[in-house]
Design a protein that fits this description.
Layout (H helix, E strand, L loop, with lengths): L5 H15 L2 H12 L19 H13 L4 E7 L9 H23 L2 H15 L1 E9 L11 E6 L5 E3 L12 E9 H10 L4 H4 L25 E11 L2 E7 L4 E7 L7 E5 L12 H26 L4 E3 L25 E3 L7 H17 L4 H4 L8 H12 L3 H26 L2 E7 L2 E7 L9 E7 L3 H17 L5 H7 L8 H27 L3 H8 L3 H13 L3 E2 L2 H7 L6 E2 L4
Antiparallel strand pairs: 1-14, 2-3, 2-9, 4-5, 5-6, 6-7, 7-8, 10-11, 12-13, 15-16
Helix pairs in contact: 3-5, 8-9, 11-13
């Protein structure tokens, strides 16, 4: 009889729970519909199989809307006011500011924007967004201190909490995360942690893919040599402990991670009572999506069958009918009433009205109508766009709040890693867009209780429109210069903005030098010549002085002579 690890038994209990709530089947169906496989397993019985993917369109809109407002992690120390003057408190405040800046560096390094977008897509389809953070010793830092935080998205079918009725990650009695890994990698890891040879030999490939996320994850190369690896996390005495195993043996025995929080952040798309797993919006749309596809299929079939006229002909006078273009048809006897066309059948207009109504009401009930999706004309002004944005964000408010809580959980996990795993090391931060390398030394702040809040900025797209409208108005009123205008434009609006600014500044410098030269030259002219020049318009005067400088001081200008009522003459004046 085979012996299994404790983690495997707990994993199987978690899988049984997911099957009872129909999670696997629902996730697979939702993923299938999202990628356009909406007639899979359906007998069409001769019907066309069109796909009008409303589900995907709404998902793209909602994910983009949730991510449209940039977020920023703001760390502060508990019990220290902004006006604190004590040297120790000032030092703590400065360290908290360093954490804020370093969170931006970590955000970029982990490509958090991309992971958030990918994770929200998973949440829309499956109901849950789950991130797992771990310490990666292979990350090179270019200094003695090595390793850094890494992140991986975990499918909800591979998240096994000790209490599946509780959504709070940090209060779970334990958490098991399942991964599909190559056997040779798993054996190498077991050897690294000095596991017995007999255990290493038990690590072999399996075909346990039936509970993975989506249809394609269930298909692997033959003899690919993959197996399920289970990571169990639990807490003892305020520390997170861990053990890693496969079905029949332990890969790495119990160890202290050094962390105080589970390195797992989770968000439900829609919460539901009594379960750690959220409700997918895709599940709500699918019945409507099926109805839309079927109505279109029936309309298409009806059109194909009846919309084109059929020919009726008298076989006693016409042996056969030829539909070829320009072909002659022989008729015996009188051609009157030898052939005729049947009146094509007409599909009821109510069918198209019903299709439009189903699509319209589906989008409206989901808060994604034509205006929100950009399919309708709107007022192209900053105020109109801002008003529209506020309206379309209302149905997403609850989901956005859960997403911001998820980001806050991530920030607290990062803080745990920084304070417990980093030690003294150099880190790179950005200060006013200038990269700086500073010493990060968390040891002296271990007794400080830090807190975190998430600042949410205005929607990037709409704030750019507002900024451009405002800048245009200020420039038209001549309240700012063109260089000030360029310096404040959102990034990417004008290509090579800095080069353009430098070119304009150089042109301004050249013009200023020229004006100073012209002023000195004018002052050196005889009074009568100065008088002649001053009698011209400003534009003529400027052009004339330039010509005089280029001509070495000789004036031949009929405009000056006309201004003095004299015959044009050549006047010699001092050269510049």
């Amino acid at each position: 009889m085979e012996e299994y690890t404790q983690e495997w038994a707990e994993y199987q209990r978690g899988i049984d729970y997911k099957r009872k709530i129909n999670l696997m089947a629902e996730v697979d169906r939702n993923e299938r519909f999202d990628r356009g496989k909406q007639w899979a397993g359906v007998k069409s019985n001769g019907l066309p199989t069109p796909v009008f993917n409303i589900l995907k369109r709404v998902r793209q809109f909602k994910v983009a809307s949730i991510l449209s407002s940039p977020v920023k992690m703001v760390y502060s120390a508990e019990g220290i006011s902004d006006e604190a003057q004590d040297p120790r408190q000032i030092s703590v405040k400065q360290f908290a500011q360093l954490l804020c800046k370093y969170s931006e560096t970590t955000w970029e390094r982990l490509k958090q924007d991309y992971l958030n977008s990918k994770g929200l897509k998973k949440a829309y389809i499956s109901g849950d967004l789950i991130s797992y953070f771990y310490w990666d010793d292979t990350v090179s830092t270019g200094q003695e201190a090595q390793g850094d935080i890494s992140e991986e998205l975990v499918d909800n079918v591979n998240y096994i909490p000790g209490n599946p009725n509780n959504v709070d990650v940090q209060t779970q009695p334990y958490i098991i995360l399942a991964f599909r890994k190559m056997v040779n990698e798993v054996r190498a890891e077991a050897k690294k942690y000095k596991r017995p040879t007999i255990d290493i030999e038990k690590i072999s490939g399996d075909s346990e893919t039936q509970d993975q996320f989506g249809d394609l994850a269930k298909i692997e190369l033959e003899d690919s040599g993959k197996t399920i690896v289970l990571l169990k996390l639990w807490k003892e005495n305020g520390h997170v402990l861990a053990r890693k195993s496969v079905k029949q043996c332990i890969i790495r025995d119990k160890w202290d991670t050094g962390l105080t929080r589970y390195p797992v952040a989770m968000m439900n798309w829609e919460e539901r009572e009594g379960s750690c797993h959220g409700l997918s919006e895709a599940s709500e749309i699918i019945p409507n999506q099926i109805a839309i596809n079927q109505l279109f299929a029936q309309a298409i079939l009806s059109t194909k069958m009846t919309a084109f006229p059929k020919v009726l002909y008298d076989r006693s006078r016409i042996n056969s009918w030829d539909n070829a273009v320009g072909a002659a048809i022989g008729v015996e006897g009188d051609i009157t009433n030898a052939a005729d066309y049947m009146q094509p059948g007409q599909i009821s207009y109510d069918v198209y009205k019903l299709i439009d109504a189903v699509i319209k009401y589906t989008k409206e009930m989901l808060g994604a109508n034509e205006t929100a999706l950009g399919d309708d004309s709107i007022t192209k002004t900053a105020s109109g766009i801002i008003a529209l944005q506020k309206q379309t964000q209302v149905p997403l408010k609850d989901i956005q709040n859960r997403f911001y809580q998820y980001i806050e959980d991530i920030g607290l996990i990062w803080l745990d890693f920084w304070m417990r795993m980093y030690g003294a090391r150099d880190i790179t931060i950005k200060d006013n867009d200038i990269a700086k390398v500073v010493l990060f030394s968390p040891e002296e702040y271990q007794d400080v209780q830090f807190k975190l809040k998430i600042d949410v900025g205005p929607s990037t797209q709409w704030s750019e429109v507002t900024a451009i409208d405002t800048l245009n108005s200020l420039l038209q009123q001549e309240r700012i210069t063109f260089i000030q205008y360029l310096q404040r434009l959102p990034n990417g609006i004008v290509p090579k903005t800095q080069e353009l600014i430098e070119e304009i500044q150089q042109q301004d410098i050249d013009k200023q030098v020229l004006y100073e030269l012209m002023a000195r030259y004018f002052a050196s002219l005889p009074p009568n010549v100065q008088g002649q020049l001053q009698s011209l318009s400003p534009e003529q005067m400027e052009a004339q002085i330039k010509q005089m400088i280029m001509g070495g001081g000789n004036i031949e200008n009929s405009a000056m002579a006309q201004g003095n009522n004299e015959t044009p003459a050549q006047v010699t004046v001092p050269a510049a």
